[in-house]
Design goal:
The protein is α/β, with parallel strands linked by helices. It is built from 12 helices and 9 strands. The strands form 2 sheets. A 6-stranded mixed beta sheet has the order 1-2-3-4-6-9, sandwiched between helices. Strands 5-7-8 form a 3-stranded mixed beta sheet. It starts with 10 loop residues before the first strand and ends in an 18-residue tail after the last helix.
Length: 302
Amino acid sequence: MSKWLKSTETLLFSVSDRIARITLNRPEKRNALSDTMLTELEQALLEADDRRDVNVIVVAGAGKDFCSGYDLAGAYAGVSPEAMPYDPELYRSQRRGFDDDCWALERTLEQRMRIFDLHKPVIAKIHGNCLAGGTDIAFLCDMVVAAEDTRIGFPATRANGTPPTQFWLAHVGPQWAKRLMFTGDVLSGLDAARLGLVMEAVPAEQLDAEVDELARRVALTDVDLLSAHKRVINLGMELMHTRTLQRLTAELDARAHLASGPRRTRFKQDMGTVGLKQALKNRDEAYGDGTVRPKARTKKPA
């Protein structure tokens, strides 16, 4: 029996050797984030943070991807009223106006920010696609280790909104954050490590061993010391207004959802007429390959 974790419909949870492992487990949906998954992820994080036999937490994804983003089919196509266990007309989740959208985004932000607020360190192990909402989860973690061929980005900035959790700025600075937001282009895990977007990138076949060894080493340190280290660094980030930015970003994402430009308008129309797969193709095809390849940094000659 778990104190916090009430269900595991969309994730796996285990504890061994003072390491809690949380695995997003919708591989058939490329681990797209649903309301259920976000709720279960928050519960699993609280479970691990509360347990005395856990010093460190690893978040990973089952199957070919870490996380492909938010479940757009659910977000845009909606759920029929008959499928809901309550009367949707009584609740703001219908998002009929700007403030309703802000309210809903702020509630989801609270769930995601659990990662940042936990006392215990969290390591993200990312592979395959880590896109859109997947980056919202990964970049809130204390350390991110990626497979070199991981695809990391937020293509939804091309038509759908701005990231509702903005840690890109904290990791890569204003110019690269803008470069990636303005185009929705993606980076490989290797190039993300070069820019500081992730801590380390390793060949895909070495990813499990790399994260296992990192988690093992972190778990050797007493849990109260780990908490002190994490919280003082996070407080420093708060003094740099990183947390305040998250509150503002949720509101600005709601503002972006009101945009009526041709790309957003077409995307919404396509979702209703040709479905998600074709809507994504129509949104992204003008950007071509969509991969940004930073030039390798070299030292200047003496």
